Every structure is written in structure tokens, then in C-alpha cells.
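Researcher: Please translate sequence to C-alpha cells.
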Amino acid sequence: MRRSKAQRGVALITVMLVVALATTAAVNMAGRQQLDIRRTENVLYQGQALMYLLGVESWARQFLSDDRRKNKIDHLGEDWAVRLPPLPIEGGQLMGFIDDLQGRFNLHNLVAKDKLGQVSRQRFTRLLQRLELNPQLVNLIQDWQDSDVEPRFPEGAEEDYYLGQTPAYRTPDRPMASASELRLLKDLTTKDYEKLLPYVIALPEPTPINVNTASAELLASLADDLPLKEIEALLEKRKDNPWESVEDFLAEPVFAGREIPVEGLSVASDYFLIDATVNLGQLEQHLRSIVVRQDDGRNSVYLRSEGEI
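Model: Translation complete:
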């Protein structure tokens, strides 16, 4: 009888163990099934989201083409500059806006030749001082982009410095492809990078600053000791009265008695950012496209990115 009770006890433990193993296996199978379902759902959403994002890009490009055919200046009072509210779509929402990239300082201009390069370096130095950043950053950016191996004085840095870092890397010796390359420069902190980023862009060729879309800080860099408050007041005036020419802009009283070169200034733009975001279910996807526009309104996509540009 004792042996029979012991056998029944072992059998009960065995049954409980089998049930536990079966339950664990079932839970794991159900978990994997849910994961597979979620993966499939995400793949479907990603494909659908990309189509939405490319649709926004196509719409914005057509908008920019029509705008160039209608007028020859670009300003923040135009329809393309209006940020629309989120658009509801099946299963989520769609957002997007257009930004004039020539309202920022083009880092390519720092290595431009002739007077444009000289004037651009002076303006960028003033911008750095306005933002309370090291003005010698202009030398670091030039060393990063130029083709020689001699560091500028003072505080420049060429390949010898960067090869001594961990990990080691080289200077590209070409114009920056993205403003995010600033992160790699000598002694530039994350805080400094984030402070500078809203005011700069890296475009494939030297470009003028559009005075109709540039920030107060950037316009204040056009000459020494320009009062920021007066420039901000000028921007308020600009909302309803954009300048038709650079000469009209420089005729403003705040610039009286100051010699401001016309090089690198404009009232129109060729480079724009199309920034689109879509939310579908649990998925959020971004697409940032840099578009270059021709005089006849035709345009092409120079760069697409899901991250920084």
C-alpha cells in the first residue's frame, strides 16, 4: 500500500510537470504569434507610411513649382510657409511643412572663393559671437572642409588631430554633406552644437541668405554691433512688407551709415526642406527631403533622410 501511494504521488507530480511544460510552451507560442503579428503589422504600416510621406513630398514640390511661376521672391507670408494642422487619415494622422533652407547660414559658404567666402566668414564669426560660441569655430569648419593639411591659426585642427582621437577618423577635405558633421569637430560640445544647429545648413553649393526668411540673429550678423531689438522690429515689419530686392532691404534706416556687402544676400531661394511625419497605429515615421528649385519652377530632390540633415 505504501508503494502504491508513492507511485500515485510520483504520477501526480509527473502530470503537474507535464501540464506546466505544456502551459509554458503554449504561452511561448502565443507570445511568438503576437510578435509575428506585430512585425507583420509594422511592415505593412511602414510601406503604407512611406507612400503617405512621398505623397506629402510630391504635393509640396508641386506647391513650390507653382509658387516660383507666380512670383520671383520668397517670404514667410506665402502659402508654402504656412504650417497646416495635422491631417487625419485612416488609422492615424499626417503632418508636414516646408522650410526655406536659405534662411539659414550655409556652411559651404565658408570655403567659397573670392569675396563671397571672405564676407561669409566675417558674418559667421559675428553669428558665433552673437550666440556666445567660440568664434574660432570658423577656422575649425574651414579646416574640416578644405583640401590642405595645414591647420589654421589659432585653434584650427586638421587630420593629425583627429587621427589621435579614439576612435581615430580623418577630415573629409570636402564641403560638409550635413550639418550633423559639426558633432565631429574639435572641442564642440553637444550644448554648443544644439545652440548652433537652428541657424546653419550644409548645401551642395554656396548660396545667398534670403533676407525675407532669415532669423534676427542671422541678419544681425551682417555688420558689427547691429542692435538685435531693431532687427527684430524689422522682422515684424517684414511680415506684411517683404523686400522686393536686396537694395530695398539695405535701405532700411537700421543699416544707415553701415557698409554691408550685397554678396551672399538675396530675396529668393532655391533650396527648401520638406519635413513630413506620419502616425499609423503605434508607428511614427519621418521623411525629410531637401529640394532644389530652378528658375522655371522645376525642382528635384537633392537628399532624403529619416534623421538629421
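Researcher: Any highlights?
Model: Residues 157 and 178 are 19 Å apart (CA to CA).
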